[in-house]
Structures are given as structure tokens and as C-alpha cells.
Amino acid sequence: MQAPRITDYENNGAPNPIQVDFSASVAPLSAVGKPASSGLRIEPAIDGSWEWATDRALKFQPRDDWKIGATYKIGLDKGLVAAHIRLAKHALTLQTPPFTARLEKTQFYQDPVNPVVKKAVFDLVFSHPVDPAQLEKRVELRVKGHKEGVLGVGRETAKFSVIYDKVKLRASVHSDSLPLMEDGSSVTLALTKGLQAARGGGGFEQTLTAAVAIPNLYSLNVNSVEQQVVFNDANEPEQMLMFQASHAVHERDTAKHISAWVLPEHHPATKPAERTAPHEWSVGEVSDALLKDNARLKLDAFAAEREWTETHAFKYRADVGRSVYVRVDKGLRSFGGFILRDRQHFVVKVPPFPPQLKFLGDGALLTLSGEKKTALLVRDLPGVKLEIARVLPGQLHHLVSQTTGTFQKPEFNYGLQPDHLTERFERSIPLSTPRGKAHFQPLDLSEYLTSGGAAQI
After folding, report:
1. How far is Cα 321 from Cα 278, in angstroms, rounded to an integer?
2. Which H or E element spans position 422?
3. Helix, strand or coil for residue 437?
4. Is the Cβ–Cβ distance between 221 and 330 less than 8 Å?
5. What is the spatial distance between Cα 288 and Cα 444, in angstroms, rounded to a whole number?
6. H/E element holding 50?
């Protein structure tokens, strides 16, 4: 016999039954599937009904919920089973699940609308609906630096509020709003032992403790500065400087505190004869004198969906492969009042533009009387190699009758393949185009088309 599962309080569940299983068939044949009204005792008494579920299983369905963390004794009289059956024991013991509590999550919370509101939040979960009065009496919040007091006199604690779910299986303990300290702080929760469920029963015989760190006033940091290439609505690549902060900062304030310079391709101290490859710059090599001799990079802020956000983007223009020095000045403030204590520095390299190759349009029919031309969009490729398949004379009807799909992606039926219908040609077109610039390459197909139209592409 197993202990009953805890009632599903969140879904208004009924109390869970128990079942006494016997090692062999013991029920009178006439009793199977019927209530068992005699020969059974359960202490402490609980209203409910017994039933022979099978000839070897006796089920009890309580009408009221089980007591929490209680021991029940079940007595089985001789007249309960068939006359020829002798039971090895006539008493069973059942222990119902105890009341338990656990800390599910702790967090530092800042109100997304009012940045002044900063709290420590502790989420508690209970096995059974909790008694709110007991919980709030047994919870204590203390902020780092609070006085301990003497024998409980003069002991400092923090005020808090508690939010419950509808069935009180969960409780969220919120501290009052906390100030920011230069050296940071922490809030500790202690839930003393003895907490009981709303229905009584044995208390939870453990003390729960947890702490939430409160960021210090100067906890704002720049997590990263990276460079990316993105495509705009006109399908043109744009160089973007991506700024990532630890807290949400305003786009206007960020633009005032961030600066960038394109560093020289070679270190000034390197002799011209030794300048075989671009210098790999590090932050420590960048001096004010070096920046003075190089033009400041223009950064154009790219509007984000929200003014206050952790990520900001800036458009710029710089040669691929060059190193860019980025400086974020101290004093930058976040939404919650956190401050960047020290100037931060980064060196990033301008990434190459991604190569691109595609036909303009999704496919077209070319008339024999027209120019017989299509076009390619090419970007940052040294050239293209084309494979052209021309339908053999007399095979056009097979192309029509034995394929499905679209012009862009035909699907061949019955094992037919393109090589069964076509002859192939290759053409290589070398290119030399500026980095990042789109090149539109015309493709003249007239040489593959006969004047009479006997062969088609």
C-alpha cells in the first residue's frame, strides 16, 4: 500500500484514493466491484467509501482531504475476505505526505516603468496551501549592515509584502524599494521552521535561507562591442557597430559617450620595409597622441524599438580589414541609475562583406524576338562560373509532359533527369568590383538559341 498522492489543489482536484493490494485472490466472488461496508476500520476516522476494485485490490476513496503528515491505521477484520482465506496480518499503517516548503527562485527586480523601484524578490513553493498569517510571521528580511541587536532588542529588519497565487501554493516575498549603495548590498531571507499549511498538520521542520545581491551604484558595464555587416531594405550591406551594456541605457546618452577611430594600417614605429601585413592592434598600444593623428570615425545611431535598451547599433564606413578603436567614456547612466565608473576600451576589426550571387527575379521566359538576356547580382566575388543546360531538339514535349513544379524548381517524373533532355555548356566570367558594391552582370543567352527556335534553354 502506497501513501496517497497530494491533492491537485490548483485544478480543484478531489482527494486521491489509496489501494490495499493482496498477494492473491481474497475477495468473496459476490463482492468484486461492489462497496465493502464491513470488516474495515481506519483511524483517525475519515469519511469515505471502500470498494473491492478487483478480487485482490481494495480501494478507499475519501470524501474529505487527508490530514497532512498524519499516520493512519487500517484494520482488516476476518469477515472482510472469503471464508477460506487467512490473512498474514490484520493491521496496516499509512503515512500521508508532510507539508513542505522550498525556495524556487530569487532575483533582484527593477520596475520596468519606474526605475526608482528596486526590490529583492524570493519565490516560495509549498506542497499544500500555506497559512498566510503564519508565513508572514515567520519570514524575516535583513539588509546587509542591519544591526543584530542584543537578545532580539534593537534588531533591524526590512519591510516586505507577500503576493500569493489563488490557491496559496506559491508566495512571492517582495522587499520594499532598496537604495543603491556604492559598494553594493544584499538582502537575506530567513523562513523559520514550524511553518504550517492552512489546514494544519505538522509544521515544516526546516529553516530556509537565501540571499539576493543588490548591484552597486557603479555596476553598469559594457559587455561587448562588436562589428557586423547587415543588409538594409535595398539589399545593400551596411557596416554596424553593435554596443551591448549590462543594463538598459538611453540611445541619446550612449551616442554622447561612445567614440571610435580607424587605426593606422601599420604601426608608426614600424619601418616601411617591414610593413608586410596590417598591424594587429591591442588596446594597450592606443595612445592619445595616436588618436590625435587619426580622424574620428563618424557613428550614426540606428534607432532601436525602445529608447532604453541594452543593445544599440551605430552605422559607420571603414575599409575592410582595418582595426577600429572604440572608447566608451565614464559617466554613462542606465535606466535604473547605475553608472559606468571607468572609461572602457575596445579594438575591433572591420569584417569583410559577405559574398552574394543571385539571379535578378525568380525566373523568366525569354522570347526569341527579344534581347535574350537576363542579369546576375554579384557582390565581393572574383568571378562566376555558370552551367547552362539547353533542351535538345525534339525533347521539349518531354520537358512539358514529364515535369511538375515551377520554372525555378522543376520536378521530374518517372526517373527522368535533366541530363536525359539537355546538353550542357559552361561559362566563366571573371570580375573585379569594389568591396561591398553590388555589380549587375548581364548574361546574354543568344548564342545558345537557334534562329528557328528548334533548340530551347
Report:
1. 8
2. strand 422-430
3. coil
4. no
5. 56
6. strand 48-54
